[in-house]
Design brief:
Chain lengths: ~120, ~500
């Protein structure tokens, strides 16, 4: 199962990098989203794939019983998803603004007016 | 005095500023007071750490290594102190420019969010928490860069956003792999658990982190985003960026190398040293051909990031301590240079070096103001850049690493040429025929106090450091000791 997921993560990274290298800012955003997804899946797989119960301590126990999933990994992934959601939302608005300002979403066209 | 205050206070101020969005005078008051209190908190933390030693705080009461630790050792406290100081300077400067549109869109709360992120990044002892603070910094800087919506800003923002997001994803991937491999993300605990991990895997994960942090620190070969985006934002924003953001990356590399991945030190040290050396040479040479003042300063900044990385990665307590001193005074130098660049723009109407001239005649004080940080940048005695560099060279010679000495002196040499070129264009070249003075902002009216006070303050600190560098060297020696303690041992210093 890990092999399958590892292959999937590799595929997502490949697609993400491919889209980042395309000549369009919209495709760059798609690429970043794919990279984000791949990274979140990576954390998920690395923390271990187990058939386990949710990490909730029920009465009258005082500690997590054996056989529960790792709560820290879930917290990491959730944080990562939320953060990348926020930055991608900003990036999308930026792309939209780029299009309304410059009339193009081709990065090479954008660089024409700059001497950096 | 808890280490959490320098992080909590700016977040509170940002929240209040968002609430009073429609009351400009009150907002200005809250911003200035908030900045002053933040600087006070930074000083208080620094003074307490110097007096009683490093402090830690377990967030939420969870015991280490399960919870998140905030650790204010000498290194972190020094960086936090400088962050609050530079934040105050940028804060005061921002009131001098009447860009109401930017203020309307929330520049002031963003500035405090950025400062909270920087302080958090310096104080945290947990690697994932570092990622969160990096994202806070990133998000605030994205918006601050793009505020205003002019074409140049959009372009700059795109370069900045995409490359820094890639760096975030690499960082996150490394975090996932590390957690899967050793089950902990506490910086100190990682060093302990790493010994049980297969060496090549540990080195590979460490290198992923190094790459992510080097992108943030704008080292070769990842520095392309900095000259493409730094010349664009207004002075106050650029002061924050130039003085703080890249240094967070350098700090992260240092912590990674010395603390978390100490067991894999030599494997990580080699690429960092190579990249640092390449950064010095390439960015230094690039600085020699620049015609835009801010781009020139950006390339010089990158060149010195290389020097800092070089000094912080060598395995000698003396060199690391001196490199910390160099980094600290460099933060102040860079902040004051960007502030003075803004003042020059107001005086001459342009950032183009070929069109500035005769500054010595029209504004006799400016060359003096420029000279102090410029010569400190080049490392000339008796300015503040000289002492840490001399200490670094001495330490490197004791280590018999001649190549490092050559690289360090090369960075000084290249900076000196660039600075000399800048000086010639600015002061010695006669004034251009037609030159618009920015009448609104260039006068000597009361509004210019907002810009002169922070510059004067920073320059006064630099002059003090130049003439009396011993405190800086003592503090940085303690900071270097704290940084290298995990690997080189030795008793904890008070």
């Amino acid at each position: 199962m890990e092999v399958l997921l590892a292959g999937l993560i590799g595929l997502l990274y490949t697609l993400g990098v491919y889209m980042l290298l395309r000549r369009s800012l919209v495709k760059s955003i798609i690429g970043l989203a794919l990279l984000g997804t791949a990274t979140n899946l990576l954390i998920f797989v690395c923390a271990g794939l187990v058939r386990a119960k949710p990490p909730i301590i029920r009465e009258p126990f005082e500690r997590l019983p054996l056989g529960t999933a790792d709560p820290l990994a879930q917290a990491l992934i959730l944080t990562a998803i939320v953060i990348s959601f926020g930055v991608l939302a900003f990036a999308m608005v930026l792309i939209k603004r780029t299009y309304t300002t410059f009339g193009t979403d081709d990065p090479d066209e954008l660089d024409k007016g700059d001497d950096a | 005095m808890s280490p959490a205050w320098p992080i909590i206070w700016p977040m509170l101020v940002a929240a209040v500023l968002l609430a009073i969005k429609n009351l400009p005078r009150l907002r200005q008051f809250v911003t200035v007071v908030g900045g002053l209190v933040h600087a006070g908190l930074g000083i208080a933390l620094f003074a307490e750490v110097q007096a009683t030693g490093p402090m830690t705080l377990q967030l939420g009461g969870w015991k280490a290594p399960y919870g998140i630790t905030l650790s204010a050792d000498h290194l972190a406290a020094g960086f936090v102190f400088l962050t609050t100081l530079i934040g105050l300077a940028a804060n005061l400067t921002s009131h001098g420019s009447s860009d109401s549109r930017r203020l309307e869109f929330g520049y002031q709360p963003l500035m405090f969010a950025l400062l909270a992120g920087c302080c958090g990044a310096f104080l945290t002892g947990d690697l994932f928490n570092l990622y969160v603070w990096f994202e806070v910094i990133l998000m605030s800087s994205f918006i601050m860069l793009a505020l205003g919506g002019e074409p140049a800003k959009i372009r700059a923002s795109l370069r900045y956003v995409i490359l820094n997001l890639i760096s975030s994803f690499i960082f996150l991937a490394g975090l996932g792999l590390l957690y899967g491999a050793i089950g902990t993300l506490n910086m100190a605990d990682i060093a302990v658990q790493l010994r049980g991990l297969e060496p090549n895997l540990a080195s590979a994960i460490g290198l992923m982190f190094v790459v992510a942090f080097l992108i943030k620190a704008a080292a070769f070969p990842f520095f392309g985003w900095l000259p493409g985006s730094y010349p664009v934002p207004p002075t106050a924003v650029l002061t924050l960026f130039g003085g703080l953001l890249t240094k967070v990356g350098v700090y992260a590399v240092a912590r990674l190398l010395w603390l978390s991945f100490g067991p894999r030190f030599s494997e990580l040290q080699t690429p960092i040293l190579v990249f640092a050396g390449a950064t010095i040479i390439i960015a230094g040479m690039a600085a020699l051909v620049q015609t835009d003042l801010r781009r020139l300063l950006s390339y010089l900044l990158i060149c010195h990031i290389g020097s800092m990385l070089l000094g912080l990665s060598l395995e000698s307590r003396e060199v690391v301590g001196a490199a910390v001193a160099y980094t600290w005074q460099h933060m102040l130098v860079m902040a004051s240079l960007f502030l003075v660049a803004g003042m020059i723009r107001r005086a001459t109407g342009t950032y183009d070096l070929r069109q500035m001239g005769g500054l010595g005649q029209s504004r006799p004080l400016y060359p003096w103001m420029l000279a102090i940080p410029l010569f400190a940048l080049a490392g000339l005695p008796p300015f503040s850049g000289f002492w840490p560099k001399a200490a670094m060279v001495r330490g490197m010679l004791e280590m018999d690493s001649v190549l490092a000495v050559v690289l360090l002196l090369a960075s000084s040499g290249l900076t000196l040429i660039a600075v000399g070129r800048l000086w010639a264009n600015l002061v010695w070249r006669p004034a251009a025929e037609s030159r618009e003075e920015d009448a609104e902002l260039g006068g000597r009216g009361p509004r210019s106090w907002w810009t002169t006070v922070p510059v004067a303050g920073l320059l006064a600190v630099l002059v003090w450091l130049s003439l009396w560098p011993q405190p800086l060297l003592t503090w940085s020696e303690r900071a270097g000791h704290d940084l290298t303690q995990a690997r080189l041992g030795g008793a904890r210093q008070p």
